[in-house]
Amino acid sequence: MEGTHPVNKKFAAALSGGAVLVLALSGCGDSKDDELNSWANTVCDAVQPQAKKIESANSAIQQQTADNSKPVDVQKTDSQAFQDMSDAYKAIGSAVDKAGAPPVDDGQTKQQNAVKELNGISTSYADLQKQVDGLDTNDQGKFADGLKSVAGELDKLSQSGNDALKKLEEGDVGKAMQKQESCKSASASPTAAAKNE
Predict the structure, then answer these.
(1) Which of 24, 69, 78, 134 has the largest count of CB atoms under 10 Å?
(2) 168 neighbors 113 (Cβ within 8 angstroms)
(3) Which residues contact 26 (CB under 8 A, 6 or more apart)?
(4) Confidence band of 12 (pLDDT split at 50, 70, 90)
(5) What long-range pairs does 153-156 form, CB within 8 A, spacing at least 24?
(6) What is the pTM of this model?
(7) CB under 8 Å to 166, separation ≥6 — which residues?
(8) Would you say residue 193 has pLDDT above 70?
């Protein structure tokens, strides 16, 4: 697998960058607003298991970047990881949607924008899964080229604008979310994964 090893490393690095997107759901500081804290608790409790799912998907791909990894094994691992990440972001979007608008100025707009972006990320990972599933594992050269293309798309996804998420967690919303233990623990693992690259 000598020809695909550098591509795999780039692929894993890009994936780790993508995990940082979930960090936009964690802010900083403190808040005394009970209603807002209740909203933040609802969202954070839902985000925590999904963040762990994203972390596991990251780990799975990084473990499959060894020199001796077979194309069929890389394909299987990557495909499952993308499905898991797609499901996770969709679940986070649903959680933000079900929580309703946070009790702050323009809360409904912030919430709707965040849900739209999270669902978009979910769709993008689902599309990447289809691309990986369609790669030719019988031809190492073609597989490497295909994986490189997927890595390029993944890199774009990891750098995609997370403005809606940032806007959702601005000010008091972010302060309330950071106060929740589940948001603190949800943000720790993806950060570590990204820093390892």
Answers:
(1) 78
(2) yes
(3) 169, 174, 177, 178, 183, 184, 186, 187
(4) low
(5) 153/124, 153/127, 153/128, 154/11, 154/14, 154/15, 154/18, 154/128, 155/10, 155/14, 155/17
(6) 0.79
(7) 24
(8) no
Model confidence pLDDT, tens digit, residues 20-62: 445 455 443 344 478 888 998 898 888 888 888 988 888 888 8
Block residue for tokens 């609802």: 42
Go through the chain and tell me how many residues it has: 197
Q: Name every residue whose Cβ is closer than 8 Å to that of residue 109 and which is 6 or more positions away in sequence.
A: none
Name, in order, each residue with C-beta under 8 angstroms of 78's C-beta and a sequence gap of 6 or more.
11, 61, 64, 129, 132, 147, 150
Whether the CB-CB separation of 172 and 104 falls below 8 Å is answered with yes
* Amino acid identity, position 154: L
